[in-house]
């Protein structure tokens, strides 16, 4: 690995990454040659081909990525049993040993970052910058969570003594086996983030990637094994909803970590709550993320940041900006700048770094796009975009234009629900306070942004916006770009449950339960 190359993050967009991207393009070409491999699951350290074989295809060009095995209840059971068997030894090791092994995973991920990013591009259709940023984020997530265990002395702390001869302490201890269920859009960072939280805390894991993202799921399992994690601590089961459902219904799973849609997250909460006893469910879900551009904003910065957050990764980020409220006096000027930037975006098969928008993930997303555009046309006005693209590379996947819409009623469902598409609704406002109230009026509360130089407007935004991650005046993204240890990422309202977020100092603790220990030292001696 070339340590001299700069690291891509979501924020350092002005940096010269040309050498990084040349290397990534080489890796991408090499990875294409390995298409069609069979990728087994990993159970108790053994390759496992239980379950029905299925093919995954790239959203970029429909080329076969590999064949995977959709784990059925019996396969899921074997994975849970393997994790259960590995748990006591793993939990019994010192936290220092666990941290050292997971730091090894981070180092390996960094070493293989080009290969992993290339597979992430192939299976998700990410741009070069998005894929490299994601893998770098994944590395930092493992390191940051390891730092948290160290900074908290393994979550052991002495407590006060009620009487001098009593020793009392408080310790956070693992639960057992965590099922980790991952969405398609950040399969590396979110997969390893949840996995690392669970494993660093002393749990064993059954990892279920999105059926679209088994290549990177297999990378994570493989790198954990290569770093020396004992067999059974990390198990991999591929598959979709039915595999996930089998995990939900398995009585020996001690807890669930899930990131994905509100519908599936809610289903998981209800299913687990109906079980024999309550188990921890760490859930992060979707977003409907607003941005407010005031008359005091730097409009070029605002247009750049909104464009990046609305259309980066084809609008398929939980933090994507999908609504922008603009002060009426600068509305026309801002919209002009936004549409100018948006029409200059390069859309295409992400085979080099010049492409900003790749394909959307699948045909269902394409159909959702067509329906949303038809409704926007009927109930508002499409300012720019709105067409599916065809011809050449575009025929290999579902490629769509970024859409900017105005004139939709405030309570229109396109303004309220998550669509997970490159679809941005713009509306003018007269009073910032009212705009923020309207932006808050959704079931979600993940991220929000503003562009405002006036300190009073900034304060109003920070005070009123109902979301776990707030951003102001960032050209790199209005509502996107969280980084481990730099921003925390906590879903409020329908975007989350725990009230504590990933990427931050309160994450790893969620994978542990508290125990106090009181020992009367002198009684035995006296006897
Ligand atoms: P999804 O909810 O469709 O799927 C997520 C995972 O759940 C997949 O692994 C899927 O196979 C699994 N699953 C589906 N049905 C299941 C069931 N019945 N039981 C158990 N598991 C089941 O989400 P997606 O389309 O992969 O990802 C997009 C969604 O994820 C968006 O809503 C997005 O906002 C959200 N997301 C949230 C965050 C966050 O941090 N808040 C980050 C990324 C994505």
Can you offer a commentary on this structure?
The protein is an alpha/beta fold and 527 residues long. The chain has two domains: 18-285 and 499-515, Aldehyde Dehydrogenase, Chain A, domain 1 (3-Layer(aba) Sandwich); 289-483, Aldehyde Dehydrogenase, Chain A, domain 2. It has 15 helices and 22 strands. The strands form six sheets. It has a seven-stranded mixed beta sheet, with helices on both faces. It has a five-stranded parallel beta sheet with strand order 10-9-8-11-12, sandwiched between helices. A three-stranded mixed beta sheet has the order 1-5-4, with no helix packed on it. Helix 6 (189-200) links the parallel strand 8 and strand 9 (204-208). The relative contact order is 0.14. The mean pLDDT is 96. The chain binds nicotinamide-adenine-dinucleotide (NAD). Residues 181-186, 190, 208, 210-211, 240-241, 244-245, 248, 259-261, 264, 267-268, 284-287, 318, 418, 420, 446, 489, 491, 495 line the site of nicotinamide-adenine-dinucleotide (NAD).
Topology:
Elements: H1 18-32, E1 37-38, E2 41-43, E3 46-48, E4 52-57, E5 64-70, H2 73-92, H3 95-111, H4 113-124, H5 128-151, E6 156-158, E7 166-174, E8 177-181, H6 189-200, E9 204-208, H7 214-226, E10 234-236, H8 241-248, E11 255-259, H9 262-273, E12 281-284, E13 289-293, H10 299-311, E14 321-327, H11 331-343, H12 363-379, E15 381-384, E16 403-406, E17 423-429, H13 432-440, E18 444-445, E19 447-451, H14 455-464, E20 469-472, E21 492-493, E22 512-520, H15 522-526
Parallel strand pairs: 1-5, 8-9, 8-11, 9-10, 11-12, 13-14, 13-19, 14-17, 16-17, 19-20
Antiparallel strand pairs: 2-3, 4-5, 6-7, 7-22, 15-16, 18-21
Helix pairs in contact: 1-4, 2-8, 3-5, 3-7, 4-5, 4-7, 5-6, 10-11, 13-14
The protein binds nicotinamide-adenine-dinucleotide.
